[in-house]
Every structure is written in C-alpha cells, then in structure tokens.
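Reading a protein record of the kind used here takes only a little practice. An example makes this concrete, so a full record is given next.
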Amino acid sequence: MKLKHFSFLFLMLCLFFSCKENETSKATIKQDLLIHLTKLNNEIIQFQKLVNENASQKEILEQFKKSRLAYKKVEWAIEYFVPETARFMNGPALDEMELEENRSFEPHGFQVMEEMIYPEYESKNKEDLIRELNIFTANIKQLKSTFEVITISDDYVLDAIQQNVFRVIALGITGFDSPILQSSIPEAGESLISIPESLEKINANNKSVAAIKNMTQKAQKYCKENNNFNAFNRAVFISEYLNPISRKLKTFQKEQNIKNVKKSSPLKPTIETLFDKDAFDVNAFVLSKEYNFSKEKAVLGEKLFYDKSLSKNNDRSCATCHNPEKAFTDGLKTNVSLTGMNLPRNTPTLTYASLQNAQFWDMRQLDLEKQSVDVIQNKDEMHGSMENIHAKIQQDKEYLKLFKKAYPKTSKPEAWQIQNAIASYVRSLNAFDSRFDEYMRGNKNALNNEEIEGMNLFMGKAKCATCHFTPLFNGTVPPSYSKTEHEVIGTPNEASGKKLSPDKGRYIYNQMAQLVGAFKTPTVRNSAVTAPYMHNGVFKTLEEVVSFYNKGGGQGLGYEVENQTLPFDKLNLTVKEEKALVAFMKTLTDKKYQ
C-alpha cells in the first residue's frame, strides 16, 4: 500500500510541476514581450534626450535607427494582438480615415518622425518631434498594460510569428514602413529574432526549433551581409530563407499538435508558405456563410455571365466588357455606353477581383454581389432590371436545374442568388499559376536573370510593392488582408498632355479632401494582357506606366496634386532597369493567357 501511495504521490508531483513548467512557459513569452517593450521605451527616452539637448542630426538619426530595431523585436506581437495601436506606432505617414463618418485622424509614429529627421533635420521640427515621441511612449505604456492582462496561448503565438514571416515578405523588405531612410533590410533580419525565442518557450527540446533557429540565424546573416536596400536580392531571400522557415514552422506546429487559430482570414490556416497555390480563401471576402463559394454556384454564375438577356435590350452580357481572352478586360481605353457615348473609366480585370475589400475604381461597392447589380442596372452599361431577370429565370427550366444544384436548400431561385452566382463565377478566376508562382514554389528555371532583377526592383528600388503587395500584387494590405488601399498618383488626362485627369475618384462618394483623385490599387497580375492602364486608360503600354512612376507621378510631371500619396521624387531607374521591371510584370501572367 505504501508503495502504491508513494507512486500516486510521485505522479501527482510530476503533473504539478509539469503544469507549473507549462504556466511558466506561457508567462515567459509574456515576460519577454514586456522586457522588449521596456527596452524599446528606453531607446525612445534616449531619443527624447538627444532631441531635447539639440544633438546633431547624425546622433538623432542613429538613435532613430536603434529605436526602430528595438520595435522590430516586438512588432510580431504588437501587430497581431494590438493592431489598432500598431497603426499609430509604425503605420504610413498618411491620415487614417473613417469614411463612414467622414472623419480622419492624423498619422503618428516612426514614419512621421522619419520625415522630420531625414534627409535633413531642422530645429523647427523639434517641438513636433518631441510631441510624436511623447505619443509613442504613451502607446508603449498602453501596450504594457494590454500584454499584462491578455492570455497568450501557444496557438496564438505560432500564428503571430507565422504572420510576421509573411509581413517581412510582403512589407518588411519592400521599404513599406521605411520609405525614405530605407533601413528595411537590417530591420527585417532583426524581426526574425522573435521566431526561435518564442518557439523555445513552447518546447526548447523539439528538433524543429533547433533547425528554425539555425535558419533564422542564416537569414539574419544574409541581411547583415547584404544590407544595401536597392541591391538586396529579395528573390533569393524569400525563396531560400523565408519560405523554408515558413514551412518549418508548419512542421513544428504539427509535431506539437498545436491547433490552428479559428478566425476569419483570407489566408488559409493550412498553408505552408504565402505562395501556396491555394493560400487564399475567397470566402473571407463574402457577406456571410450563405454567400460562400461553391463550384455549383460558379457553373451557374458562368451561364449568367454570358447571358445577354440580363440587359434591357438583350444585346449585352457581362462578357461584352469583360472578355475572357483578355483576362476579363476589353482592350479599350474606355468602353462605349448603350447610347454610343464613351464611358468615363477603363474596364478593370476580373481576375483576382475577389481578393479585395472594395470594387470599382472608386471603391463604391464593398463586394462582388453589389458590383454585379450596379453594372446590370446601370442605364449606361446594361440597363437591366433585377426584378425582370428574376422573373425570366423562374420560367427557364435549364436555369431552374442549375439553381437547384447551386442552392439545394431553397425551393425556387431567389433574387440574391443571381448576384451571388455571378460573384461566385468571378471568385473562380484566380489561377495563381504564373511563372512567378512557379518560381516561388521552387522552380528556379521559371524566371530568367532579367526577370529576377525586375522582381527585386519591383519590391525594392522602384517601390511598386509598397502599394501592389506581394503576392496578390493589389492594394489589399497583408498579412491580415482586412483593408484594400486607394492611392492618389496624379494620373494625367492624356499620355502626352499637360492636364491632370478631372475624375475625382473616391471623393465623389466620400467628400474628404484627401480623396480627391483617389482610386483603388488594382492587381498587376495579368497586366501584360490587360492594356490600356489606369482608371482612364491613358497609358497604352507597361513601358509608359513605368516611365510615369519613374518620373514621380503627377507631381513629378509638374501637376498640382497636393494630396498625392505616391512619392513624388524621381525613382532614377535606368533604361535597363525599366526594361527589367516590365519583364518581371509579364511573369505575373496566368498560364491561360501566356
């Protein structure tokens, strides 16, 4: 009996200390975050001291860099757990807008400070800089209070660090959050430190942890040895360093039996890398579950898409302007209305249109369902009636069969299902099978040297990827993909003209000064077959587009565009670099259009 009692007691003690060890593990991750926040706070205090003492620009700049590096060590957690605060610590130096209420908030954080101290620091900025630093320390205090009370479980930690790998790929190495100073490369290396640190707290004895630690150290070394922003080889860094780390994180998750975090996200929880063929879930952009994509809905939607009876005069279908052979565009500068007048805007591609949070150039509709109704009922485009279309469908035996397959729970077709079916067909148009995709999945022969140079320019010196985010190459912001951006670039009215386009874009629907001339950032995928370009079709070739950006957009051309969000300084791309950039964009063409 004594032996049994001793064995039971020993077992209870083992379980007790095992639980305690597990609790300590969780607490340690939290403690690490609080320690890193304290270090960040200390760097900001030193920053404040130098500014108050009127230190030299060199000293202030060096301290700014140190402060950003300290932030990068804890960025993975701030961005994941407290994204609202992160926006005002390291977000773009542009007003944050709440369009529903027609309100805007001035930006704060590192990018605002960067503009104050670089390329030249002037004493007149001292007061504003001190104000920004005070706001920053207040945000750190708020973060500490938040991290002290929230529960940080293994599944959330793993999800957060995986998201951070994707953030480094899509934002960190592009200069997105360091547009002027271009300190992105050493910062990308610094942000990887959190990966092995966090995994060791979960299970330091797991073999994958040692492998990941080794991989991150090599990635950091690569950043240190190749820290020139313009010369950095992003193709190599992603394919040979970050993608393998991402895959290994998934291996670790399986070995530890850590469940996926349940959340609504366009990134599927099962993916190994950001470039997996099925990485994105179109259902993350739908209104509710009954609108979810299915193959049966897409088959029905395809028939509706090509059906001319949806228009008033039975002479136009969706395919009239969205030709499948041209990646669902029409090849025209702008199409023609039913009355023979030119429509005001270019027809955008429908490929990858389902992976964004707003539709139309002016972003006036939030989803594809409303987009289809808008076009069908527009008096200049199709001038159809959803009520009449609904009535016709209910008399068509073939349609009734397709609706029954697509919506088996309803006894007869409903009006909303017409919109949903067309939207479902559009949601089926994301192939992700371009030569770029092949390269990112391991086929090193998919791209030649000029195209790889073009990719590095796109994600670096040319600054394209700071608006057209990899791998969707549209304005849907990674890694949460919860927001699709607009930009003011100062598009001309004519390619060789001296006038700015008179189209006010998003301002028509949200009358805020910042939105005059603002248009959605479209995908660059399939751009080789979707000419002409811009909201008004002003540029006929990709070469013209690159030349426009190289000159600094509208402001660079001398137009008055006070609210331009595009950097207006010249990119200084050489003729060879411009050619390489175009060559890369052509690698983003889906197989069926090659």
Observations:
- Confidence is low (pLDDT under 50) at residues 1-25.
- DSSP finds 22 helices and four strands in the chain.
- The first strand starts at residue 96 and ends at 98.
